[in-house]
Amino acid sequence: MSLPEIDLVVYPDECDAFGHLNQASFLSLFERARWEILHRGPGMDVFTRAGAWPALRKTVIDYRAAAFPGDVLRFQQALTHHGRTSFTMRQTARRVRDDTLIASAEFVFVCINGEGRPVPVPPEFTTYMQPRRASAGEAQSLMVHGVNLAVEVRGEGPALLFVHGYPLDHNMWRHQLENIEGYQRIAPDLRGLGQSDAPDLGYGMNIYAADLAALLDTLDIDEVVLCGLSMGGYVAFEFLRHWRSRVRGLVLMDTRAEADSAEGRRARDAAAASAREGGAEAIAQAMLPKVLAPSTFTDQPEVVERVRQTIVKTPVAGIVGALAAMRDRPSSESQLPTLGNLPTLVLVGEADTLTPPDQARAMAQAIPGARFATVPGAGHFPPVERPEVVTKLLREFLESLG
């Protein structure tokens, strides 16, 4: 089972002269939530039973919004790092009535004995706090940087991280998740998309990439083969800027290295305005003819409808945030020649008009030693339109890595 959520009421004596919940009281609420979650699980004496005590060594709190007397705050908590004698907890507090994120925090603890010396973290605490592995086909929710990200994890072995495109979710990789054996397949929903939280603010390629790095930390994964499609490719380039040592192989699918042109930036802004006025349905109507191959419309109407349903369920805040992130992303062209020691595969749909095959081939040629392949009969979303072909090409690439 997932960890319980803890609801706590803000009382007047916890607030300052202006009626805001003060910072000292906020720390107290975070602490109460931690002890309450233990009370509901292994017991508040889980540490003392093991001759240990969790000594706080570091705290980082990000205050996002004000809380007032009478507000009910819902605390969610996760164990994000576990060492032999230390552990890190991440907590968020959201106001129940409007789901506003009030604050997020990260606490680093070291377990010590009565003499102040480090001792192992009690196994009973670890067992209770570590996230449950979801069953096959089920996404679990993990707290990362103050938001809950939905992520599906399958299999065992070297890690393969899938990063979906805009405005889809991790289910676009369904065939690959189910049919690529011998790898631990990890497919998150980026913030604002799919089943992940969609805050009003806090979007950017650097933020998406940092979310992925923190997610890997939470899953205790050091190194991945990174596979990004379209916007997921932009996120992959950003991830490489900061965490190149964590990538052992790269797949760039229906994406490009160039930044948006002035015309492209204007189009992003126009799409954001359309989303605000007409909702996700307006985005779906505008995008579908551009992202799917003509043969997909005639031969696979169920695929067209599945993609449409995914888009229309996307929160407007996530759509607008993603459009701004794509509009403002930097060029990654200078990165391409530096990727020569990183095994790379560039894939593109044969009928992709957004990132045409000639453009994808030029990108592959700029990466020393990169492989290039087209997917017949696919537009901008090959894993959805021609899943078997994409899975076969990915398997061949993964086998070449040894």
Structural description of this entry:
With 402 residues, the chain is of the alpha/beta class. Helix content is 36%, strand content 24%. The chain has 12 helices and 13 strands. It has helices at 23-39, 123-129, 174-179, 205-218, 231-243, 262-291, 294-299, 301-312, 316-327, 357-366, 382-385, 387-401; strands at residues 6-9, 53-63, 72-82, 86-95, 101-112, 140-144, 147-154, 159-163, 184-188, 224-229, 247-253, 344-349, 371-375. Strands 6-7-9-8-10-11-12-13 form an 8-stranded mixed beta sheet, with helices on both faces. It has a 5-stranded antiparallel beta sheet with strand order 1-3-4-5-2. Strand 10, helix 5 (231-243) and strand 11 form a beta-alpha-beta unit. Helix 4 crosses helix 5 (231-243), helix 6 packs across helix 8 (301-312) and helix 6 (262-291) packs across helix 9 (316-327). The chain is globular, with a radius of gyration of 23 Å. The model has no long low-confidence stretch (mean pLDDT 93).
